[in-house]
């Protein structure tokens, strides 16, 4: 056991939960140099790497946890779930989906439903995504990510009425979910309610957007510019 490494890991985790992310990153990195072994610190470090866009380093951290026989199955399963996200962000969505399917065959958790439900949409398997996300909602009808996944599936299928209903329920449970706000803005735009669309998109810009987010700040800004242009044009008529 790396005593010094785990002390650094504890300091990193202390800063991490207090949102002092730069300090947390420095302590985690020192912890790894000194053989940080406690899995909760390594997993937290990997998640921080994901959210800062360091996907290859995150992949390596999660892989090291996954193959380590000292850790419990629950720890390795969490590493595998996060590892799938690293593979997705590195452009290997097929590997990511297969890893999540393997996890799903062994257990049911909201996080697995969240991750796999979204990646099926991202892959373009809309029929499978719809079936899976309907199953996910039956598993947990109060999870805003699961609801957002189902809403996105309906949106991609052109079923705006159903999409709007689930996006609105997701927003009622988590009002700062960037993808929910973005797609509600898109729906309001298509309905001709440009002011409401603008409000949702401006709210989306104020959310915590990081490299792991499914909607980029650039996409929101582009849509907002489009709506502002339409509002200006309508005011001139």
TrEMBL record:
<keyword id="KW-0802">TPR repeat</keyword>
<dbReference type="Pfam" id="PF13181">
    <property type="entry name" value="TPR_8"/>
</dbReference>
<feature type="repeat" description="TPR">
    <location>
        <begin position="110"/>
        <end position="143"/>
    </location>
</feature>
<feature type="repeat" description="TPR">
    <location>
        <begin position="144"/>
        <end position="177"/>
    </location>
</feature>
<dbReference type="Pfam" id="PF13424">
    <property type="entry name" value="TPR_12"/>
</dbReference>
<protein>
    <submittedName>
        <fullName>Tetratricopeptide repeat-containing protein</fullName>
    </submittedName>
</protein>
<dbReference type="InterPro" id="IPR019734">
    <property type="entry name" value="TPR_rpt"/>
</dbReference>
<dbReference type="InterPro" id="IPR011990">
    <property type="entry name" value="TPR-like_helical_dom_sf"/>
</dbReference>
